[in-house]
Amino acid sequence: MDSDAGSTCSRSSSPDLVVDDSAGSFFSNKMFQRYCEENRAESETRQGSTERCGGKTKNRSEPNKDEVQDLRLKVNSRERKRMHDLNQAMDGLREVMPYAHGPSVRKLSKISTLLLARNYILMLSSSLEEMKKLVGDVYGSSAAAQSRSATHSAITSTAAHLPLHPLAQSLHSLVGTTSALQHHSSSPPSAPTPHSPPAASFLSFHTPVQGLLKDPLHLASSYRHFPGMPCPCTLCQPLPATTSTLHSLAMNK
DNA sequence: TAGGCCATCTGGTCCT
DNA sequence: AGGACCAGATGGCCTA
Fold this sequence. Notes:
Order of helices and strands: HHHHHHHH
Radius of gyration: 28 Å
Strand content: under 5%
Keywords: DNA-binding, Nucleus, Transcription, Transcription regulation
Pfam family, one: HLH
Distance between the termini: 27 Å
Shape: elongated
Region (Disordered): 1-22, 38-67, 178-200
Number of helices: 8
Protein name: Oligodendrocyte transcription factor 3-like
Helix content: 55-70%
GO molecular function: DNA-binding transcription factor activity, RNA polymerase II-specific; E-box binding; protein dimerization activity
Mean pLDDT: 52
Structural class: mainly alpha
Largest sheet: none
């Protein structure tokens, strides 16, 4: 509809707001012209009715054309700002997501960003639970109760050796479908920022492999998987229904 | 060229 | 009343 306003933003998710420009385009487009015509017709009708009533002009509650235009522009501007803020938040979310960043990498779409974020949170939660379980197995419940700080440090230090959770595969599939990966196993990780996401190597980001989700155990973990034998790790346990649904969603993307 | 993604406008609804 | 939020409509840009 609004081609001029759209061209000014250059498809950035957080374009610079040029209110006057968009307003100009708004004034120039057909919808607004039709809107003005309708508004004029309505005001004329109202005037006729008031004259017919013969009374005083009672248009205090009914704004005139200019007021309606100003109101409309204000509302549009607010909505634009709201959407820009939303996009900024989306960009912030993209920045902390474990996918390849860079100019050569296509930006994640909004829906992909949200799905990826959800998967990422689920994966981290599962990993944390798994690490707690592992530490509990190693040190025993009493030892774990004695030093929770040690537990915490053990969790953080051993996180780098986490088996790849099936949820991570959905990250792979999502990223694989939306962008080319910057990080490979041979390339050094980029310098971490204060809010930098876990390194790609942490998530074992290699070449995206499509269809791995169909067989999560395929590259499941450092656990050894024997045919016909149940795996002891909780990461190999069936995922919640919601997660499975999300997997299919992500795969369909 | 079709489809995906996006920005913007717009009207409705709810809340303060 | 004014603002926030939401969803539908519309049209532009980009990619396969």
